[in-house]
Amino acid sequence: MCTFAMQTAPQKPGHGQSGWAGRHFFGKRLSALILDEQKLSPPFAGRQQIQTSTLFCIQTSGQDVTRPTKKSGIMALLIPLKNEKSAHAETSAMRHPASRPAPPFLTPILLKRAIIRPALLLILLLSSTFSAFAYDCTVDGVYYNLNTTDKTASVIKGSYSGDIVIPETITNNDITYSVTSIGEYAFMDCIGLTSITIPNSVADIGRVAFFGCTGLTSVSIPNSVTSIGDSAFEGCSGLTSVTIPNSVTSIDFSTFYDCSGLTSVTIPSSVTTIGEYAFFSCTGLTSVSIPNSVTSIGDGAFTNCSSLTSVSIPNSVTSIGRSTFSLCFGLTSVIIPSSITSIGKNAFFRCSSLTSVIIPNSVLSIGEGAFFLCTGLTSVTIGNSVSTIGDSAFDSCKELTSIVIPSSVTSIGRGVFADCEKLVHIVVASDNMTYDSRGDCNAIIASSQNELISACNNTIIPNSVTSIGESAFTYCTKLTSILIPNSVVKIGDRAFVSCNGLTSIIIPKSVTSIGNYAFDGCSGLTSVVVDKDNGRYDSRDNCNAIIETYTNKLVVGCKNTIIPNSVTTIGDGAFSRCFGLTSITIPNSVTSIGGWAFYGCTKLSSVTFNAEKCTEMGSNDYSVFYACTNLTTLTIGDKVTIIPDYAFRYCSKLTKLVSLAVEPPICGEGAFEKVDKTTCQLLVPEGSVNKYKVADQWKEFVYISEYDGVDDVSVDTQNALYEVYNLQGVRVGSGMREAEVTTDALPHGVYILVSPQGRKKIQI
């Protein structure tokens, strides 16, 4: 079995391996988006934070080392990149794993390429370990295998370059053979091959026959050819044009994958099927005419044809598959014929130049992410036969201003209109029996459940609504205020994710359930209040947080939160992406902190950890302080005896760690993993240095010294050479020489003397 391995940044909760490939692979820069869709689960089943990673190896197990078939269940998207910046640009709209339903771009249909492409190379490498491909004869530098029964010959693998002419017949030992086939891998990676003449005797071109022939600029396929194998011309980046003869009935799997120089292609009327990935990443292709003979267009057939400006889909086609036209950035218009009954997952993902789409009445379903990140889309007409609209179908269509949901719709997924920042008008047809937009609320409400499932920046929650659904307000970034009526009982998972314009929120007394990451990324929140009559939640001591009363669990915080001493648990993602939070004190009452509690708090610079009885802080996969990129100072309280497993994992920017505990706290597994112990200064109480130097994990810190509190005092130096400050940083004496500094009037205590030699603590 062939497997695919990546070196990645730490995984987000609920995600499979993911990331951008950052190294030359197969002779080109590639990006890889990889996700096991089956592993997506709350809390982070959402928009993905893509991290930098390196595609580094191919592994095999077992004895069967063969090229995976196109029926493989594991798939990937590999996109050629121009530079490092383009990789990061691709992820600009996919910032955080909690922010969306499962990113539709990362679906199993795209994971296939991660296996197939490495496997092809692997086969070549393995074959090269043998003396050579077995061959029967060679004529004019071309290798052949012979079939003595029917007197036919097949061109086989060799090292070819220049202009190659294949004759119709060859003679060996006085026997004439007809050349009928170009075998599998025959010209694979022959980068010096500039032209090929294929005779009329050839009936089939084997799979991978011209794979990676980057010097090949044109090819004429004769009418005798009836079959062109999988990936036959894959990676022929110099190929500018190709004519497919009328004898061919199908364009198979990845036939012209990554033929980036291909500007035009003629598909004859004999072709009935365009296979999966047939023209994947043909970035030079500007237009394509699909004849009426074609009845099936495979998944990903035109993915990343970034120069494609127009496409005509014939009436013979009944469905648009997964990712068929995804990443066609130049596509300005598309006419969907009335023969189409379904639009698949990611079908037009990131077709950012599309301005309008009319979905005909024949269409029954719009798949997940079908028009995700179509940022130029201003107008959408949904036909009156559509019954299903999948998750994130119109996510990030930023120019869309209004939408009408027809009466036929009976199923609407999560985050359908998330991050449609100009969407101000949502109307559901009055005769729709499943959904409504009662009272001109500019929202979609599931009628029987009274659940608001999709909102916009202009939404007003009606008093009849009892539930705010999962991801209902996700990425309503221009929403500045919202009144949650007393009728609301439940606020679903990720309900207000990234509503960063919200400054305050009041939880009414009626609410009994608040879902995971309900207010994640609401970075503008300064005030969080729970109605005093709420029996389930409270905001005790004016803490600006939501606390589950009976469990003393803090479930939602904001940048102004002060954690009360009565709190025993900080919940999963409680402060996730609270960008305005600069410092936090974990009180001694806290016994556990949930995973990703402070994820992405990018301005958090200091943490004081006084939780003397805390035994649990996230986990190996759910780091508490992950992506806190400015966390430089950590103070451990004097009563702390235990540092839980993985407590401060990934606090990689720490430069100062103060432990006030005289006895080194016992460190759990990976307590300070990824902290740079060669640069982070560890400060400990007077007389404790040697104890820390031999204690497990503490001894790994290179710089361990006594802590006197001086470093924490900010002083305002004047013109005198010698100055005395109290521990509050107030200057209380000065002089040009140390002997001139008068301290007689000062009360007894500890002070700081600032001199040309530095700062030191003095006792008066």
Structure described in brief:
This protein has 764 residues and is mainly β. The protein contains three helices and 59 strands.
SSE inventory with pairings:
Elements: E1 2-7, E2 20-21, E3 24-25, E4 28-33, E5 52-60, E6 77-80, H1 84-90, H2 113-128, E7 137-139, E8 142-147, E9 152-155, E10 162-165, E11 169-172, E12 175-182, E13 193-197, E14 204-205, E15 218-220, E16 227-228, E17 241-243, E18 250-251, E19 264-266, E20 273-274, E21 287-289, E22 296-297, E23 310-312, E24 319-320, E25 333-335, E26 342-343, E27 356-359, E28 365-366, E29 379-382, E30 388-389, E31 402-405, E32 411-412, E33 425-428, E34 435-436, E35 444-446, E36 451-454, E37 467-468, E38 490-491, E39 504-507, E40 513-514, E41 527-530, E42 537-538, E43 546-548, E44 553-556, E45 569-570, E46 583-586, E47 592-593, E48 606-609, E49 616-617, E50 633-636, E51 642-643, E52 656-659, E53 666-667, E54 681-684, H3 689-694, E55 703-706, E56 722-725, E57 731-735, E58 750-755, E59 758-763
Parallel strand pairs: 2-5, 9-12, 10-13, 12-14, 14-16, 15-17, 17-19, 18-20, 20-22, 21-23, 23-25, 24-26, 26-28, 27-29, 28-30, 30-32, 31-33, 36-37, 37-38, 38-40, 39-41, 44-45, 45-47, 46-48, 47-49, 48-50, 50-52, 51-53, 52-54, 54-55
Antiparallel strand pairs: 1-5, 3-4, 4-6, 7-8, 8-9, 11-12, 34-35, 35-36, 42-43, 43-44, 56-57, 56-58, 58-59
